[in-house]
Design a protein that fits this description.
The chain has a single domain (20-230), classed as Rossmann fold (3-Layer(aba) Sandwich). The protein is 50% helix and 10% strand. It is an alpha/beta fold and 242 residues long. Helix 1 (5-16) crosses helix 10 and helix 8 packs across helix 9.
Length: 242
């Protein structure tokens, strides 16, 4: 990936402000399974680190979500569909089951996760990082809430008010068919509705940046450009980058 003028300027300002105490800028990556998040997260983290920035890498399900291993284990045990033959893939059904009692349990955990997220970002903010890069974020839980009822919409807004607002939230868009071919974990019909739920998040989070399907290198360049254009080392954390 070529060095961009905006990134060069960002490095210059960063070098001149190293002695200043400044809150880190939060970058988040969300999207359907198989959209290429891990590739882009690793690429961006390496890119920033190589240019002198101090980067913290956070995995939402491992480092933020409350009782994540227990939740994942129970979900897989209950909702995984057994394969019918040796040639078929055992698909998961934990995300696409939306019974009222399950959604009630999830709502309680999502609230705890939002509070945990505040604590994690606050803790990392005191560790002298320049960027905090999240592998998934609260947004990946919000897409499980169907916003058809006013109460559900109010709950989504409550969770967003509790969670820190990232400076650079990315949704990596992808073709559900291609993502399913790369990572066949969930039924294809669910993957299609899942994608629409992610795109619909902009109703609640207008500053989300949706990166459309493209080559790995093109997506990398778009992400770096977006961060370079929006970063300002001397700016206050509350100043919107848009």
């Amino acid at each position: 990936m070529g060095d961009l003028p905006a990134v060069a300027a960002l490095r210059y300002h960063h070098a001149s402000a190293r002695s200043n105490v400044r809150a880190p800028q939060v970058v988040t990556f969300s999207g359907i399974d198989g959209a290429g998040k891990t590739t882009q997260i690793n690429s961006l983290s390496a890119y920033l680190s190589q240019r002198g920035f101090r980067v913290a890498h956070v995995i939402f399900w491992d480092d933020v979500a409350v009782l994540s291993k227990l939740r994942a284990g129970v979900s897989l045990a209950i909702f995984r569909e057994p394969s019918r033959s040796a040639n078929t893939v055992s698909l998961r059904h934990d995300k696409n089951v939306r019974t009222w009692y399950l959604m009630l349990v999830r709502a309680g955990f999502y609230l705890l996760d939002a509070l945990s997220l505040r604590w994690v970002v606050s803790k990392l903010g005191r560790c002298n990082h320049d960027f905090i890069v999240f592998d998934r974020y609260l947004y990946d839980e919000l897409v499980q809430i169907q916003p058809r009822h006013w109460l559900a919409r109010a709950y989504i807004r409550l969770l967003l008010s509790l969670a820190p607002q990232p400076e650079f939230p990315f949704i990596l868009d992808a073709s559900p068919d291609e993502a399913f071919a790369r990572k066949p974990e969930y039924p294809l019909d669910f993957m299609r509705s899942y994608r629409q739920a992610f795109l619909g998040l902009r109703t609640f989070v207008p500053h989300l940046t949706v990166v459309g399907p493209s080559t790995v290198d093109t997506v990398q360049q778009l992400i770096v450009q977006r961060i370079a254009q929006g970063s300002s080392v001397g700016a206050n954390r509350g100043t919107p980058p848009y």
